[in-house]
Amino acid sequence: MIDVYEWSPSGVVMTGSDFRDGPPDDPHSWVWIDVVAEDTEMIREIGTTFGLDANAVEESFNTTSLPLVEEHAREIFVVMHGFAIGAGERLSTPKIDVFIGERFLITIHSGDRATVEVVKNRLAEEGGIPISGPAAFLAFMARTTGRQYTPLIQELERQVDGLEEIAIRGDPQTAVEAHALRRDVILLKRALGPQYDVYDDLAESTHPAIDAEARQLFARVASQHRRALESLEAGRALLGSVLDTYRGAVADQTNEIMRILTVFSAILLPLALITGLWGMNFHEIPGATSEYGFWILFALMVLLAGGLWVYFARRGFIGAPRVKDLPKAVGLGVYSLGSAPFRAVAGGIKKMGRTDD
Questions:
Q1: Domain annotation covers residue 262
Q2: Number of domains in the chain
Q3: How far is CA 261 from CA 104, 171, 255, 256, 264, in A?
Q4: Which of 203, 232, 249 is the last residue of a domain?
Q5: Cα torsion at 282, 286, 292, 295 (round to 10°)?
Q6: The domain containing residue 298 runs over which residues?
Q7: What's the CA gap between 317 and 230, in Å, rounded?
Q8: Residue 95: its H or E element
Q9: Neighbours of 102 (CB within 10 A)
Q10: 104 and 210 together in one domain
Q11: What is the Cα–Cα distance from 152 to 150, expressed in whole angstroms?
C-alpha cells in the first residue's frame, strides 16, 4: 500500500498512490511517499524512480537494523524506531526506514505504525501541519514519536513504584515483574540510545537536504530523546534498588525462620535426651516404680523448656528488644548526645571534689 502526499505553496494534497512521476518539478514543492513494505520489487522501483542509493534500498529490507543515518549524494537514509505493544503485552520497537531528499520524503515500514497514523490524521485536520520541507517534516514525525515515549516511561515508573511495596514484603512475584520491566527498559534504551545519536547527527548535518529549520527541530528532538534516556537510566537504577530490597527482605525472612527453628531445636534437644534416657529398656530406672515419677519428670521437662525459652528471650534470640535495651540497639548516637551534658556536669563535680581534698 502506498500513500502519496504533495506539498505546494497552496497547501498539501493527497494524490493517491502514483509515485512514478518522481519529485515534483516545482522547486517550491515536495512529496511524501508512505510505503507499507509488502512488495520488495515495488520498493526497488521507487528507489530507481527517485535515484536512491541501491545499498540503502537493500538495507531497508533488513528487519533488525538499529537506528542509523547515512548520507548519500542525493538523499539521506535514516532508520527510526517507534514502539508497539505486541502479543502478550510485550514491548517491541519496530523500525521505519526513511529517505530524505531536497524535494521528497519516503517512509517505509511494515504494517500500521502509530507515529505515521498520527501524522496522517494531523494532515487530514483543518490547517494540517505547517512544515516547510521534507527534513522538517521528518523532524516533526520524530518529535511525535518522542512524545509517545513519555507516557510509556511514566507507566514504567509507576510500575516500578508499585514493585517497591511488594519487594518490602518479600513477595516472589517481585523478581518476575522486575526482570520483565528491566527487559523493557533495556529494549527501549537499545533503541533510544542510537536514535538520539541519529537526531544529534541530523541536527549538525550540512547535507543539502537538511535546511536550517530542520536542524533546529532535530536539535529539539535530540534533547527530547536525551531526557527520555535519562529517565530510563533512573528507572533502571531504581529497578536494581527494588531487587536489592527484595533480596534483603527474603534474607530477613529466611534468617527469622532459621532463628525460630534453631530456638525450637535447642529447646527440644534436652527434652529428647531426657525422654531417651528414661525410655531405655532397663529394669532399674530411677522413678520408674514411683507413683509420682512420671509427673515429677514431666514437671522438670516443662520447667526446663520454660527456662530455656526465657533464656533465649532475654538474649534477644526471640521476641522484640526490651525497653531498657533500646538505647543499646536503637538511637545510640542520639542517646549519647542527650546524656553528654549530664556526663560533663558529673565529671566537673568529681574534679571539684578532688580539688577540695
A1: no
A2: 3
A3: 75, 22, 10, 9, 5
A4: 249
A5: -80
A6: 278-319
A7: 46
A8: strand 95-100
A9: 17
A10: yes
A11: 5
Each as own residue / partner, the long-range contacts of residues 269-276 (CB below 8 Å, 24 or more positions apart, any chain) are: 270/304, 270/308, 271/301, 271/304, 271/305, 274/300, 274/301, 274/304, 275/301
Rounded average pLDDT over 299-313: 84
Q: Are residues 116 and 140 both part of a single domain? A: yes
Residue 260 has pLDDT above 70, yes or no: yes
Left, alpha or beta for 331 (phi > 0: left; psi -120 to 50: alpha)? left
How much is the pTM? Answer: 0.63
Same domain? 169 vs 299: no
Residues 77 and 162 reside in one and the same domain: yes
> What one-letter code names the amino acid at 274?
I
Q: Based on the fold, state whether residues 88 and 101 are members of the same structural domain.
A: yes
- Amino acid identity of residue 79, one-letter, is V
Helix or strand or coil: residue 15?
Answer: strand
**Residue 96 belongs to some domain of the structure:** yes
User: For 128-160, how does the pLDDT look when each residue is reduced to its tens digit (9 = 90+)?
Assistant: 566 678 888 888 888 877 777 777 778 887 887
pLDDT for 331 beyond 50: no
Residues 17 and 64 in one domain: yes
The grid cell for 101 is: 531528499
CATH of the domain at 171: 3.30.460.20
Closest CA to 145 of 100, 89, 79, 73: 79
DSSP 256-316: HHHHHHHHHHHHHHHHHHHHHHTTSS-S--TTTT-TTHHHHHHHHHHHHHHHHHHHHHHTT
